[in-house]
Amino acid sequence: MKRCMGFFLFIIAVMFSCPGARAQQSADAPPAGNAQNGKKLFNTVGCYECHGRQGQGAAQTGAVRIGPPLLSFDGFLGMVRKPLNNMPPYSAKAISDQDLADIYAYLKSIPMPSKGKDIPLLNK
Amino acid sequence: MPKSPKQVLDRRNFLKGAAAGAAALAAVPATVAAQPELKRSVPPAMSPAAETEVPTGAEVLTADRTGSDYMVDVIKSLGFEYVCANPGSSFRGIHESIINYGGNKAPEFITCCHEESSIAMAHGYYKVEGKPLAVLAHGTVGVQHAAMAIYNAYCDRVPIYLILGNIIDETKRAPGVEWFHSVQDAAAMVRDFTKWDDLPISLEHFGESSVRAYKIAMTPPTLPVVIVADGELQENAISSDAKIRIPKLTNEMPPVGDSGSVNEAARLLVAAENPVIIADRTARTPAGLACLVDLAESLQCAVVDQAGRMNFPTRHPLNQSDRARNVISDADVILGLDVADLYGITHSYRDQIERTSKSGTKPTAKIITISSDDLFIKANYQDFQRYNEADIAMAADSQATLPSLTEAVRRLTTDDRKRAFQDRGVRLKASHQQALERSRDAAAFAWDASPISTARMCMELWGQIQDEDWSLVGATTFVNKWPQRLWNFDKHYQYIGGAGGYGIGYNAPAATGAALANRKHGRLTVNIQCDGDLMFAPGILWTAAHHKIPVLHVMHNNRAYHQEVMQVQIMADRHSRGISNCGTGTTITGPDISYAKLAESMGMYGEGPISDPNDLGPVLKRAIEVVKRGEPALVDVVTQPR
Question: Residue B507 and residue B502: Cα distance in Å, rounded?
Fold first, then answer.
């Protein structure tokens, strides 16, 4: 229980060095997903544990920001199924493609926030 | 453990007339052989005779001056301001001498509700004040409770001065409890993670070993030490011919890198195009921070602060901690200064079924290390991390070595190199600013979320304290190091690092110990406190309230041991079993804990739970007013996991 967790570091760098992920960043349309169900899955299945409840990411866990996602759905699917970093691999047995499409739809629905420079408290 | 006076009499023997005139410590003659003789004239406790018989005139039942008074004189000579302890019969003699003979001043007795808290308080206090606290504990059950906190201090290279009570002579132990609380070798169970210990068998021996222990603890690598104070030695009267005095404390000079290695390191650094300094437990004192700034500015090179201590100002343009991977992968020379895990920061690591690691440095990069860790290593506990393949390894204290290294760098710097350094400094300044802006943008995500994002919580706190003389005394690991990324740290006491050994239960008592150190300086002490950590020994809240230790605990209440949630998720995913059950055994819900009520129950101001980020600022402001009045306060913030 009391283990240092250096394990998750460096995901961001590795994630974006993934050739598969880069190749998928074209404008291929994601499958239809149910954002409401996706939100429920995201927060109950446990994606939020590392990525935060709005997919904001966390430097400590090494979990990249995914809300809204930077990757296409195929890239997202690839990262979930066969991550090249420290993210645990989620097989289809653990979570279906449809559930992932729902989660992706939820993440897509999250609006981009203001820029940091526009939030006074962040500039003190 | 309380005892009846008769039990005490049964165990204790006082040398006739020994009490007279022991005020002057320096020249009282005695030897070990002159220690009090045993006398068994007191009837056994609980016998009818003991209850009714008139004591004989020859029997001595009181003593003006006992060994424990001398022990307190020794303790006072070492300059301890406080002694932390949960009371225990095996050191009752010292306890009484501290509060009466010593006037409960320097040291003042701080009542702790758990020995783990006593040690962690001493841990946090040292990192602010630069000197140790004394801790008293039973030689058996006390040190068993204390063990994890001692291990944390050991891993964090923090000197703890631990005095254990014990009764060595079995014929002096009362039946029952005192046997359970006695041990042949009290320090044995922590010997693997302490630097030195001793079991003095005379007062003279106690004096010498106590001073020696202090010197050993404070010589880098600074580490915990243990002195066992025998019960008989504490409680027996000082013999009139006792030859006791207090040895002079000689502070050892910290080990410094040899001049040849220092010059070679300087040559490599000056010639390098992209040198990087990695600091961790570098700045033992405020002078260390200034020395590191001096070296970095002389080279105009990147500094990555691993934040084991407050080593380098966060907004200094050469601070590149937020882009550590980039600067390390570009580096041609890497200088590690008392870095706990240099391998970890120079390699990437992948935790999949096959665990792999990969170097993150150029194959040609030269690695220089200056670390006092190389002077002290033990086999059993594996805190020493992977082996570093350094090109120059100086077994020395980095802070003490920095001035000579900086001087050598300046001596070797030509005008050409100076111009190159200036260009590099300009580039690094721009990178620093870009990294700061990236962090601000990253903090904006989930800004208005509920539960509250860790970035928002940290910035609401920053908004309230930035104009104060503040000190952040809790580890920031579990809040994504937002404070280091976004706040302006420029003083040594503004951050003290983490537990060292990652033993949970450190943070709340260490923060309280740090606040105790900050109190006399009038600093505003704030702590971001994880919920799971507090629940190990929440009695520390009472200690803070009882002793009026002003500290603001801002609860990072994510209602789980989240690190462990993720660990179990990794396993569940690896086995393709889904992660919906991973909250079992890892969450702290059902019922949710009310930390504000917990604080109130201990006599501390409490507010919360706060789950709307817009409510947080005013609540923090109110709590800070309480702290500024000299009292502790707690604000319970319901937060995102990380």
Answer: 10
Rounded-to-integer distance, Cα B188 and Cα B110, Å? 26
- The listed CATH number (3.40.50.1360, 1.10.760.10, 1.20.1560.10, 1.10.10.10) that belongs to domain A11-113: 1.10.760.10
Of A7, A46, A113, the CB nearest to B444: A113
ipTM of the complex: 0.84
Cβ atoms of B326 and B441 within 8 Å: the answer is: no
Q: What pLDDT score does B54 carry?
A: 65
Q: Which of A4, A80, A84 is best to mutate for the B interface (most B CBs within 10 A)?
A: A4
Q: Supply the pTM of this predicted model.
A: 0.90
Domain B5-244 bears CATH identifier 3.50.50.60: no
Going by pLDDT thresholds of 50, 70 and 90, the confidence category of residue B15 is very low
Identify the CATH assignment for B445-638 out of 3.40.50.970, 3.40.50.720, 3.90.180.10, 2.30.22.10: 3.40.50.970
Task: Report the 10 Å Cβ neighbour count for B329.
Answer: 17
pLDDT of residue B60: 85
Q: Where are the beta strands (DSSP E) in B205-251?
A: 225-230, 243-244
Which of A115, A118, A119, A121 is the best mutation test for B, with the most CBs of B within 10 A? A121
CB of A43 less than 8 A from some CB of B: no
Strand B347-351 and strand B355-359: the pairing is antiparallel
Binary contact (A49, B447; C-beta < 8 A)? no
Q: What is the pLDDT of residues B206-222, one digit of tens each?
A: 999 999 999 999 999 99
